[in-house]
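Figure 2 data, in text form.
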Amino acid sequence: MWHWLLIIIYLISTFYLSVAVPLVTYALSLALFGLLHVFSELAYIHQRFASLYQSQKVWGFKWVYWIYLYLAMIISIRSIQIGKWISLSKSTWFQLELSLVVLMLAMVFFLIKKENRAYQMLLVVGLMLISFLIHAYPIEMLLFFSIFHNFTPIFFLCEYRQKSFDHLNIQQQKIFLLYQKSILFAFIFIPILIIQWQPFLWFYPYQLSSLKPWLLETKSIEHHLSIFTLKSWDSAENPYLVISIFSAVVFCQILHYAVVIHLLPTLQSWVKDHALSSLDNPLLNPQGLQDFQGFQPKSIFSVQKILLILPLISFFFFQIDFFKARQYYGLFASFHAWIELPLFLSLLLSLQGFSKIKSLSI
């Protein structure tokens, strides 16, 4: 019963904060939980999928090494862009970054078994289409991938249900299904409701909503709308449409943070004996501390202290210069976002028991 109550309270409060004070909610959630969610998500990926990354080889080298190579190039491009060492247009920078992402995805081609040439051809056609869209619409494509990343918990939960659901006891299965259905509902229907009904206007007459900044020097909301929206979406007939879209994505981002920081580590702790990697999550899984060398419950690096310090450190830098801190945060965010795409693609080809990937052992 309390799980239902927790879900309802969280969704209602998140809904209100996202639509009533979207700028404050976006800024504070990013400053406090952005970096924490990056490390939590990377820890979950390593814990659950390390064997997949390590077991596959392309041209004699481990698949993970190729991924790291492309990610290092992407980070270098972003660093040059932040430092303004080379003067290029924003579209050109986006084209370079997304082109490297396509090349990273293309490595999955060499993991597909030769007898499954239809899937190889489908992958080639898909990547050619993406390449064309990147060349023609680089800003729109980067925006698409940025928004799409917020929905990745749906994939993680579907993969968990297929691979680990049978290892749960009856009570855990019921709890998992409850959270999975609630999260699917929240990700799909609530953003549509926010965009369609524009609930910001519900609270405005009662002075329960505001677009002004608070605590952080973020300037006005106009300086942030381009993070999740396009200028072409702005309409004189419906001036609150862009703000509603921004609020909807903020809602999805906060939901993404909650799933990655709390729910996924909890689910993984339930199937600790069936983990895909021997490394437990030292950051968010207290049960795994005893087995992780270098971390002991009584040490200074306890889970509680890490969880307390990391958001405070992040908030401190965002307080000094929000926009510069967001640029550097983008380096970490791009690493954890792009590393998931080849993983999702390879696992997608292995769903339902089809062995499209060579020696896929997960």
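Caption note: Confidence is low (pLDDT under 50) at residues 273-302, 351-362.
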